[in-house]
């Protein structure tokens, strides 16, 4: 969602906007790009291009406030009709003709335009003003009868589907029948007489399906189209897209009324989409698509294959040269990649839209550094042009092209990535199979907004039509999905659910295919993957050089270096062994924020834990602990060596003890069978008794964490001794261990004080025994609501807090994560109760408020209290910004997410400083 990350203020003059709260319509000459909240992205940018003196067809914008009023009340604001009439009168005077007049009609388009780009998700109607009378005037004025009737059939088709809710397939079937009757394959081969018949057919479809005639009054057409655009804001596909892209639901859409210019007036006319840089790679050059004798929807719909934009130079050099100048003007003005829609009407170039273009993750990093080198932006702004989600995409594996997997086709590399899955040919199947655990590739001739559900469910998208500006390409790039478009050699038959490759090879539904969004190649079968060059860079196996992969690595390196320089938050790793710790360190970890000691009790050590649990006497328990002590100490020595000189926060045993025992059902069956054979094992009987004794209805809220340390004598002190002895051993060998001991699941300061007293006694003993000065910090996890609410008291006994946001989220919401995510989270997301899972991004209003309050209370008691977070939220981009805002000292996350956290911590600092380092 590149445009939504734009750091420009939505409104630069809040007072000026407040003064216009009752003004619902703005002429293009009145607005500017800073009024996106009010005019939407499209309207604000049309106004900006008008201000720049670029050739924009005259028009006006109905504000998002009008839309919100309409959606809230079910009716348009009472002032709106008069304002629209006044602006329409002004437009008619400018154009010298009336909307829909019989002899030389003014025609307009009615287009949606939200603050953030939502390609294809809302409605557009072109050619408003055409009727049975005005179509004849348009034919006479243009001197092209075919063009007039083609424009009229397009209006009825768009209006019928968008405004009157007629099934769009009915129009397509009638159009296909007309082409079939003439034995042609493209609609441009239909002549005026055939299009006139098609108009009659379309009007009959409207009458039959909508129960009314197609409106002949041009103002009625416009008013109904405006309402349809308003209502499309709450359409299913628009709501789904907003949830996917995390766009707020309360913004509303503006409506742009623009005088029509026509690209379907013959070979000297056309329409196109252009990018000032390649949105897939970020490279500079001439990128885009052009289609002669067509209207704008034909390009993005992918229903006709376009030609590369560069070919416009030989088709219409004058317009091409002018377009290149405008593209340079816009990129310099916006200081970013611009996505441009244009139309050429009989050799006259018109600009219909510009916006900051969506781009792939790799392009985002390259473009950001290129713009720095060109002096257009500074390093701080470059850091804001990328994000952690994009960096995570760059760390995914890529295909190993040295393997002998069969290449069956090649298309346009529209959105990079390596996607493998079973071929499916409609969105319903994609969703159904995906929910059953299958990975799928959605294959279509071209996609349209109704395919959004399937595109979200699929690993990647493959189309046989369209280019880099088609619906599939634009939406896939916005979602970070792998996409290959315009694979013309592949014949897609959605009805037969198959795809035929050159040579007759048939791919049936369910066959595995692989698509490479970086090269455009399509493979039969599963292609093995190799590590991403960005991961190799983070692991120290790759350096910046000259080829494409190295160029990307160089861009990532530059931005990461700046992020590390400016960030305040330190980034630690959740790691439980030396191997993970070393990898985390290579990824830039500045310590370990969570070492889960329970992972050290698994494998062959489980038997020792069983002995501890089964111990009937103090002597048996002490023997079990003595067996565990040297093993724990060895683990810590290795961990401290891997993280030498950096802090290592060791969490004492947290989970319920029954997790280290056999499954109750399996053990019961085993004992029952043994008893039936009269050869029951004494140890199994004791184990079964222990399992029953420790069984809990809700173990996550039972005997675990600090409670274990208080009811099982010696358990925590054994762990503290292992940590202390390991630290002393490292110090004796000139190491620099910086251990921190963390007590889990504390709910009251008294629990912490009891464990702390025992721990300090052990530390004093080890210090005396070894002669090594040990200064180990003692702190706690804040993972229960009560701990957060009494943080001021707990801080009296804690030198640090680490927020365990996984458990804190469970206990605040009353959710059992393992159960609820599979049972009802999907429904909650679809109904809009959640914008995103609270386990993925921190719930700022609930869980976040507890964190904020605990930070303030803790520091009020102990100003030097060190604060961190060790739940997986520590690696979530949006959550990192929250943790920066509330004043934590560090975040901790899994090793693979460390680069993402580093980047986002830098972005958070750059935002809060509000300065550009140019």
Describe the structure.
It is a single chain. It contains 37 helices and 31 strands. By secondary structure, the chain is an alpha/beta fold. The strands form six sheets. An eight-stranded mixed β-sheet has the order 12-22-21-14-15-16-17-13. α6 runs parallel beside α8, α14 packs across α21 (548-566) and α23 packs antiparallel against α24 (618-642). It is elongated and about 105 Å long.
Key terms:
alpha/beta, eight-stranded parallel beta barrel, disordered N terminus, 46% helix, eight-stranded mixed β-sheet, 918 residues
Please tally the β strands and state the result: 31
Helix content: 40-55%
Structural class: alpha/beta
- Please report the number of helical segments: 37
For the CA atoms, what is the radius of gyration? 32 Å
Name the beta content range: 15-25%
Strand order of the largest sheet: 12-22-21-14-15-16-17-13
Shape, principal axes of CA atoms:
elongated
Give the overall average pLDDT: 88
Termini separation: 25 Å
Poorly predicted runs are 1-20
Largest sheet: 8 strands, mixed
């Amino acid at each position: 969602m590149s445009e939504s990350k734009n750091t420009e203020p939505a409104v630069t003059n809040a007072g000026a906007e407040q003064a216009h709260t009752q003004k619902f319509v703005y002429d293009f000459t009145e607005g500017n790009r800073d009024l996106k909240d009010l005019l939407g992205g499209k309207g604000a940018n049309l106004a900006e291009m008008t201000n720049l003196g670029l050739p924009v067809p005259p028009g006006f914008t109905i504000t998002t406030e009008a839309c919100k009023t309409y959606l809230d009340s079910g009716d348009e604001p009472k002032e709106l009709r008069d304002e629209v009439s006044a602006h329409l009168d002004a437009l008619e005077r400018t154009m010298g003709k009336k909307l829909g007049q019989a002899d030389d009609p003014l025609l307009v388009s009615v287009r949606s335009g939200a603050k953030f780009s939502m390609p294809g998700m809302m409605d557009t109607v072109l050619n408003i003003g055409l009727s049975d009378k005005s179509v004849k005037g348009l034919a006479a004025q243009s001197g092209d009868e075919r063009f007039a009737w083609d424009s009229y059939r397009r209006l009825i088709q768009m209006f019928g589907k968008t405004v009157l809710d007629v099934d769009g397939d009915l129009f397509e079937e009638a159009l296909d029948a007309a082409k079939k009757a003439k034995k042609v394959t493209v609609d441009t081969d239909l002549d005026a007489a055939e299009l006139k018949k098609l108009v009659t057919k379309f009007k009959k479809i409207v009458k039959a399906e909508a129960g009314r005639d197609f409106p002949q009054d041009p103002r009625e057409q416009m008013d109904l189209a405006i309402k349809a655009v308003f209502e499309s804001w709450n359409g299913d596909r628009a709501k789904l897209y907003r949830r996917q892209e995390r766009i707020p639901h309360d913004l509303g859409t503006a409506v742009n009324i623009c005088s029509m210019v026509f690209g379907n007036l013959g070979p000297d006319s056309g329409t196109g989409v252009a990018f000032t840089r390649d949105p897939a790679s970020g490279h500079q050059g001439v990128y885009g698509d052009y289609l002669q004798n067509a209207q704008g929807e034909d390009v993005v719909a992918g229903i006709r294959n376009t030609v590369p934009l560069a070919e416009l130079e030989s088709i219409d050099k004058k317009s091409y040269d002018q377009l290149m100048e405008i593209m340079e003007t816009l990129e310099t003005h916006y200081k970013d990649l611009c996505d441009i829609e244009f139309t050429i009407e009989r050799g006259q170039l018109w600009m219909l839209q510009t916006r900051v273009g969506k781009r792939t993750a790799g392009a985002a990093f390259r473009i950001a550094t290129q713009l720095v080198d060109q002096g257009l932006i500074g390093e701080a702004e470059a850091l804001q042009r990328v994000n952690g989600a994009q960096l995570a995409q760059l760390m995914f594996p890529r295909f190993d092209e040295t393997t002998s997997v069969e290449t069956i086709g090649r298309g346009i590399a529209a959105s990079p990535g390596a996607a493998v899955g079973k071929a499916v040919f409609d969105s319903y199947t994609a969703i159904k199979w995906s929910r059953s655990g299958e990975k799928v590739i959605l294959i279509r001739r071209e996609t349209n907004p109704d395919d959004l559900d399937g595109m979200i469910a699929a690993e990647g998208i493959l189309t046989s039509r369209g280019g880099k500006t088609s619906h599939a390409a634009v939406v896939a790039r916005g979602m970070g999905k792998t996409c290959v478009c315009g694979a013309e050699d592949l014949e897609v038959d959605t009805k037969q659910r198959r795809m035929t490759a050159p040579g007759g090879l048939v791919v049936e539904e369910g066959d595995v295919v692989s698509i490479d969004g970086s090269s455009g190649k399509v493979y039969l079968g599963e292609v093995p993957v190799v590590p991403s060059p960005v991961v190799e860079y983070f692991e120290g196996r790759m350096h910046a050089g000259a080829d494409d992969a190295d160029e990307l690595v160089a861009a990532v390196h530059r931005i990461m270096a700046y992020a590390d320089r400016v960030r305040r938050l330190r980034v630690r790793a959740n790691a439980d062994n030396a191997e993970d710790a070393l990898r985390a360190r290579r990824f830039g970890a500045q310590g370990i924020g969570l070492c889960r000691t329970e992972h050290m009790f698994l494998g062959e050590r489980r038997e020792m834990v069983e002995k501890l649990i089964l111990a009937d006497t103090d002597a048996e328990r002490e023997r079990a602990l003595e067996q565990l002590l040297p093993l724990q100490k060895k683990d810590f020595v290795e961990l401290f060596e891997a993280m030498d000189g950096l802090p290592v926060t060791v969490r004492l045993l947290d989970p319920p003890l029954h997790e280290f025992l056999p499954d109750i059902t399996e053990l019961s069956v085993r004992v029952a069978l043994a008893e039936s054979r009269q050869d029951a094992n004494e140890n199994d009987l004791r184990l079964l008794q222990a399992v029953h004794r420790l069984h809990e209805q809700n173990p996550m809220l039972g005997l675990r964490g600090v409670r274990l340390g208080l009811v099982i004598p010696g358990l925590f002190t054994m762990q503290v001794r292992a940590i202390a002895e390991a630290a002393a051993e490292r110090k004796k060998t000139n190491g620099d261990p910086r251990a921190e001991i963390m007590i889990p699941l504390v709910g009251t300061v008294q629990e912490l004080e009891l464990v702390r007293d025992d721990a300090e006694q052990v530390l004093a003993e080890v210090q005396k025994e070894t002669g090594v000065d040990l200064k180990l910090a003692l702190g706690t996890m804040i993972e229960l609501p009560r701990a957060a609410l009494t943080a001021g008291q707990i801080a009296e006994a804690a030198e640090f807090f680490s927020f365990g946001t996984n458990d804190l989220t469970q206990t605040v919401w009353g959710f059992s994560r393992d159960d609820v995510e599979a049972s009802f989270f999907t429904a909650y997301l679809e109904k809009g109760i959640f914008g995103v899972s609270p386990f993925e991004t921190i719930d700022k209003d609930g869980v976040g408020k507890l964190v904020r309050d605990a930070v303030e209370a803790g520091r009020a008691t102990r100003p030097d209290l060190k604060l961190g977070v060790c739940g997986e939220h520590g690696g979530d981009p949006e959550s990192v910004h929250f943790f920066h805002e509330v004043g934590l000292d560090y975040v901790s996350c899994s090793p693979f997410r460390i680069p993402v956290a580093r980047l986002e911590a830098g972005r958070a600092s750059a935002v809060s400083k509000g300065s550009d380092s140019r």
